């Protein structure tokens, strides 16, 4: 413990010479009786009898004790972390504590409940645990304990600011997150997601950057990979195939595009609805707002779908793997052809000189044949159809005649 | 549900603290405190909602009243009401002074035990209980109505002092248990400093009989110190200070002068008297209201002392009523009322007293306190100017009049710290005089109960039993410090430099103190030096004329030559006694002040000067520059 004095001593005078050094000692101490109370007294006893009046040893002992306590605290925190399903204790930013409960639509509920690290992944159990923790900590009844040191020294135990604003925020957050439908709506427009989603570069930007980039492929995967990952949370079908890497197989790539073109997203925009003007009982008013909200929701959903679709389109158009797959396919086809020709009897080394020409000719011929056949088939089908129609007509006429005959 | 309502379930998150309580057991009032989960000792109320529980037990018929309810019995049933029993604990009958006009049950010689003080009370003994109701197996009852209970038998009961105390302590502990919801495992009970060993033994025996495990019998001074040395008390007070404890109870006054150095407290001087107490104040107040009553109703009333039976009853009623009056006057600056229904001859009384009148009535008590304080300081050869802090204990010091009077009459410094100047009295603050002792006892109980289990726990615990000499400690007799030679303005003490006191006198050894400040460096060599001295301190009284007040309205007129009274202004003085050594060092981390001020261009460096005085009296001085590794200079002075 150091006492800090606000003084500055004068500099040593140049002519200073100290008093003659003496072999003096301090005067003999007298004896007193200590009052046996207080922590300082206990420490004094320990210093005398445990550490033989050695301040260094005493300090060390207390430092080690403090360390032990710290470790124990950590261990306890870990233990409780297992109990609380990994909710843990998040630091509460002063801004968070001063939220206005009236602005509840704008709050970050996961931050309020201390679940920022889980967000949409938080399980209902975790939400329950987190809510209980926060309620215990911030219940208005608990606010009696002083948090401010200055307040403590003045009047302890009576510092009750009666500030239950944050508690209301907790209640609202829990109400929303514990209801699956409301949570879905909230998650759809979660701040965290919206921010990241808005940061996604536009198609033109990506194209421009990619063309400029020295490693366009690398840039492609680095930029678009996280984008799809980010949006995967909204897919009803899970798990969601991801963009993957450059060396992904053809099946994977096809599965990816197939999935994302048929994405079934649960994202919806009810959360952003305008409140029906409160106090207004007018049914028309209500209906008008509801109608507007509905159209607004639909518009947002459309926009969102379009954006995702645009991204998939963009990915498909820029995907280096698609080019690679096409090339591979072509190569495979050619290889196959080559193989099949090599396997045809009657083809010998002489014929090898112009295989492509022969091939083409054959192909042409085949195609023509095919065409002719198709046309023939078409014509035949037409004919058959017409025949069928006339047959049906005939049959109908005969039936009618029979009927008439019967009636007569 | 098998669990009756109101029984607290075993709490899942039980605090790690063992359930211990602190009991302030006074002669007139007791209070209980517990250590809460928040780490604060808190005075709790009993089931009647009283934090100050009257030490009184009353027997009325088959009922027994304890605490403030028993006090009300003083009106009609004073001969069966027992008060003031704590001071008789452990005493023989022959040692107990007999009072002339007792206001409660008389102390008598026990009929069988030799030389034992006892009380005789009339009670109604419950008669034997009626027959158990009949069941199907035995003979059916003749009628459906239960057998009427026979009349209780009037009888006499002889209670010795320790029995009474046992009943009372049991009720206190019961209140604490009701509050905590668990069984109390230990208690620290306060005792006055003047309690003899036999009285302490008697109290421990009584507590054991009441089923309380006594952790420590704590002296009242120590209990006060336990509260005032906590961080909660005040963060602005100096860790080394001289503290005056003024404990004004209803029947006695204790004053103690404590030296507190970083939480270690020891008594420098103390005095105790039973001549001064709040009872005198009560008497004055009762006489005032009695006279007022006579004036208003023309009914003769002689109170304090009263002779007539009706007068005595009126006095008892007034005594109860003025409790409220005193509390009101402590809490608010306005007037306080006193209302008694049917004070005498069926006349009701309502009167008020304002603070000025009250202070006038209380003046004899106030002056008695300030006289006692002055005498104590004189005997201890300590000037009032040296007292850094005043702490009040008891109900009466809640009256701000006492503080105001004491500060003026005993001549304390203007900046002396009191709970009133710190603003901690009101609203149940830390300085609340009525709960300091109980809270100190509770925090001590928690401290001892949570002592870590190690090899010397048993040994350290003996310090709390008062049987070992562990509490003996050596203290320095003179202040040690360092002197920086140089030119200083206003060097009245003729020291020739700046004096920095580091280890104050009465500091228990071993002691370690570190002081941080800026040293001026000589420009050329960045050198600094200081002398280590042992000094004696004194008080210099200077007569100063008060500054003349010039009124603007008497312009032009020649000023009258008024003989103005001089006032004494006290200054602390320092006289060099023993030169212990010279420390010279060269600063490595000097900085030059910039700017245009008077100090511009001067070199300074911040240093830590540490003094360690061992228990034997050897001194180690070490100088360190803040931010640099290792000491730059040191000095060792061997023990004598």
TrEMBL record, chain A:
Residues 65-75, 328-337, 355-383 have a biased composition (Basic and acidic residues). It comes from the Eukaryota. PANTHER family: DNAJ HOMOLOG SUBFAMILY C MEMBER 2. Residues 81-93 have a biased composition (Acidic residues). This is J domain-containing protein. Residues 108-190 form the J domain. SUPFAM superfamilies: Chaperone J-domain (SSF46565). Residues 1-28, 65-99, 278-304, 328-408 are annotated as: Disordered. Pfam families: DnaJ, ZUO1-like_ZHD. InterPro entries: DnaJ_domain (IPR001623), DnaJ_domain_CS (IPR018253), J_dom_sf (IPR036869), ZUO1-like_ZHD (IPR054076), Zuotin/DnaJC2 (IPR044634). Gene3D superfamilies: DnaJ domain. It comes from Hohenbuehelia grisea. PROSITE patterns: DNAJ_1 (PS00636), DNAJ_2 (PS50076). Residues 17-28 have a biased composition (Polar residues).
From TrEMBL, chain B:
It holds the Pfam family HSP70. InterPro entries: ATPase_NBD, Heat_shock_70_CS, Hsp_70_fam. The keyword ATP-binding applies. Keywords: ATP-binding, Nucleotide-binding. Residues 134-148 have a biased composition (Low complexity). The keyword Membrane does not apply. It comes from the Eukaryota. Residues 129-150 are annotated as: Disordered. PANTHER family: HEAT SHOCK PROTEIN PDR13, HSC70CB, ISOFORM G-RELATED. This is Actin-like ATPase domain-containing protein.
